[in-house]
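Aim 2 progress update. The chain analyzed this quarter is reproduced below.
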Amino acid sequence: MKHFFNRRENIVTEALDGLLLTSRPGMLARLDSYPDIKVILRADWDKSKVAVISGGGAGHEPSHAGFVGRGMLTAAVSGEIFASPSVDAVLTGIRAVTGPKGCLLVVKNYTGDRLNFGLAAERARAEGFKVEMVIVADDIALPDLPQPRGVAGTLFIHKIAGFLAERGDSVEDVAASAAAAADEIVSLGVSLSTCSIPGQVQEQRLGADEGELGLGIHGEPGVERFELQEAGKIVRIMAERLAAALPGAGDYALLINNLGAVPPLEMGLIAHDVLASSLADRVKLLIGPSPMMTALNMNGFSLSLIKIDAERETALAHPVDLRAWTPPVPRHGLNVLPVPEAPIRNSIAVASHDPLTEELVTGICQHLISLETELNHLDARAGDGDTGSTVAAGAQSVLAKVKSLPLADTAETLAAIGRILATSMGGSSGVLLSIFFTAAAKEMTETGTLPTALLAGLDRMTFYGGARPGDRTMVDALDPALRALAARGLSDAARSARAGANATMEMTRANAGRASYVGARDLAGVADPGAVATAAAFETAAKLIDGRVAEGKALFGAD
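Predicted structure tokens:
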């Protein structure tokens, strides 16, 4: 596993300084005791209230320093990765933030943390500080274990104790409430991988199709392994075990915690499955999903529940002045709104007849279909060899529906062709031509002039597609053709389209489409198939209009 770091021994201090540098100015500070003693504390702290201190090994970010701020922790004491901070470090933190009202230490139930925080508490008491300590042991993975581990449920205690301390409660009351809350938390984790510590070889104890249930937050093995299966089934197993361990009836707050490496997409799916599980009816408040107490880059998540009453609910929901805490939301159902109806003008128009338009549409489609092999051959020289088939598919779909088109209304005909190509003509060319005809249809309803409308369609197509003349695409034929059509008529448009298509044979660099990946040697002398198809369409239209000057003038303008 690869990691971003400079020197292994500096990872934690540099990361903590990064947190300070990216926090709001005046919010956080650290003691000048680096590197041995790493204490992050509130920069605005005045010691007039009970201080709430927590900490432990690094590697659980944003815990613990990320929760330092008004309404949660007063200070966080950090050790190295997965290593408890020293007694001196904890004692230094106590001295830095504890005033006459005392402090509460919130400790996860690991031997190193209990001993180091415990001895620091005793030494602080000997110095005259009022110190209380609450131990969180919320992990239910090993139900018969007399000393359960403290995991992500600890965050509930950070929030509840921080609220009570901010409110001005005494240290004895804060400690009593925190201890009572800690007794009513249950947590369980699951992972599909072990974590990787920077600078160390990763232990690969899980097979490719294995997961682990009931693991801790330091990479230690889980209680049991399972065969990789659907997320919903994994969640159901966790929900059943958590439900059996809940401390009684009543409402609960649920924290969905990302252990470090689960993508947001999957965390959303996990939240969905949890809220469809047997736990859902017990949940009143939801926190997450978000990374709150991680295990470096472990590909797993944990679920934590705490029984709530009015005061705990208020404490959990009260706003805080820090970034890492995810405000809880009440459990609620999906809010589904009806799909808006399409405007009438965008619905399928009523069929109508116009001999000239039908002849033009039919003739152009038939000719493009006949060019399928030729266009595929051209595309095979510079692309994937399917332009002819793509163009033919679109033309066949339009041809099949020509009798149902609103041919007497040019704007509606353009719009209908745009809709047909959007669904029947594959690849980017289908979308581009659909944009072209759709935008042209809108302009046609406003100006009533076909050349102007088609130029508007070209403008939108090139805006979204990004191609311009000279980029070796259909635009090299379409752009000069439409400008000639607007200025001089259809015959000149057809000649300009063919000249534009022929010019692509001299273009040895494509700036759009698959041909942009092809070298100059393979492009030289090969016309762009989209430009050739465009020229063929204009030539067919010009041939059909020849001899029908009056009708052509009415549709396309002067010729």
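The radius of gyration is 35 Å. The chain has 19 helices and 13 strands. These observations will guide the mutagenesis experiments scheduled for the next reporting period.
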